[in-house]
Amino acid sequence: MTQIRAMTEQDVPAVSRLLGESWRRTYSPILGAETTTRLSDDKHAPERLAAELADDNKMSFVAERTDGSIAGYAMAKMDATGDVMLDRLHIDKREFGTGLAADMLHAVLAAHAGIPSIALEVIEGNDRAIAFYRKHGFEVVERKAASHGAEGHSSFIMRRILPRA
Ligand SMILES: CC(C)(COP(=O)(O)OP(=O)(O)OC[C@H]1O[C@@H](n2cnc3c(N)ncnc32)[C@H](O)[C@@H]1OP(=O)(O)O)[C@@H](O)C(=O)NCCC(=O)NCCS
Question: N-acetyltransferase domain location, by residue (predicted)?
């Protein structure tokens, strides 16, 4: 059994590790090992992640296994206009294809009930993630220069419209 819940400060070291591993696996083939390591070490430093927990515009979730280990992590942020972006969704490689990522996406959506749509940015070449998001109703609405310091790369903005129940 895996429980999805709000992330707390106790989860910071495990989430930092999960993000570091996931970034290296996913982005090294696209951005190169050196850029990936530099960006990840900076963005996913424990103190950065802890600061995000105190940010009212960000909501962070983890999936915790019964043995206490962290199987997944998601973070959504709301901008000044109320638009919600799924900023990060990373699951442990052992959980790929298990449905955990979909469960985490649903946890994020449930926590933002009533929003008209949700968007995300995904780097071009991250084909597994793009396939996952398409499967869950996201469509590419824009192609742009990648943000997050990944100069020279393109990314897609994908958005899922959420019908009112
Ligand atoms: C993105 C992520 C959360 C999706 O979770 P997942 O459990 O792998 O997703 P699923 O297995 O349900 O769906 C992936 C789909 O891509 C397909 N796929 C796998 N590799 C692929 C590839 N190279 N190209 C295209 N499609 C691919 C799978 O077959 C699957 O589709 P299917 O269910 O129709 O067979 C997970 O892969 C992950 O954590 N990746 C690393 C972090 C990341 O990239 N996060 C997103 C960017 S922030």
Answer: 2-163
* Nearest partner of 84 among 5, 160, 164, 6, judged by Cα: 160
Task: Find residue 88's DSSP bridge partners.
Answer: 75
Q: Are 74 and 86 in contact (CB under 8 A)?
A: yes
Per-residue pLDDT, 46: 97
Read off the pLDDT of each residue in 59-83 and give the average, rounded to a whole number.
97
Structural domains of the chain, count: 1
- Unique residue bearing structure tokens 């990944």: 150
Q: Is the pLDDT of residue 151 over 90?
A: no
Distance 68 CA to ligand 1 centre (A): 24
CATH number of the CATH domain containing 20: 3.40.630.30
Q: In angstroms, what is the span from residue 25 Cα to ligand 1's centroid?
A: 13
Q: Which domain holds residue 146?
A: 2-161
Cβ atoms within 10 Å, residue 20 = 17
